[in-house]
Amino acid sequence: MSSKRDYIAVFDSGVGGISVLRELLKLMPNERYLYFGDSANAPYGTRPTGEVRALTLSASEKLMARGCKALVVACNTATAAAIHELREIYPDKIIIGIEPALKVAADHFPGGEVGVMATPVTLREEKFDVLLHRFTDACTVHKIPAPGLVQLVEQGKAESEETQALLAPLLAPYRDKLCAVVLGCTHYPFAAPIIQRLLGEKTALLDGGPGTARQTRRRLEAEGLLWEGEGELVIENSSDNNEMIALCKKLLRT
Ligand code: DGL
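That is the input. Now the predicted structure with D-glutamic acid docked in place:
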């Protein structure tokens, strides 16, 4: 049985899930959060799916053992690879996954051209195909994998010249051409200023973090599990690089 005071666990392959945590904190500042980033094993997005699933299940098991009422998988890649298994293993817990915000794009830009930036795993998994099929009549979707961007964000270089150099050739064909670009990886919102400059000001950037936070709140409320006592935030990381926690805190303030 979960109690209101139990943690909301937030999991990502690294520091990216901080972009979801900051939305959760805006909406529910008085909850108790346990954030775990698996930076020692990042990036997940270029690994075989089975490996991503195994890493996600193993991290989730450790988080659940610490008494969590909900698990927010703040990683599109881990959600694509393991959300069904997680729901089977923990049927009594609230399990929230994040997926590229294609619905928001289709609702706001019917008939428009939309890009989805995400990791190779997210874009090749069946879960994304299912999502794509729901919206193929509503908009034209361009898949834009961005290998290398996660590593730069993990190194604290989200807004660096290196990020600019990596993304410039990738996004040049789309400049001033798309109504919206969905940021389908939780690391990418930290590079949003560069992405926006390269795509042009008319392209809307859509991030699944706010919707994921709202969904988490809805589920907690429905189950009578909202905690409005004293808030708490624990941030942990699998990397032996001590700077990862400081980086998480810095990104949380952006
Ligand atoms: N942050 C993860 C996501 O949302 C992926 C990062 C990675 O490749 O490890 O997809």
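Residues 20 and 35 are 10 Å apart (CA to CA).
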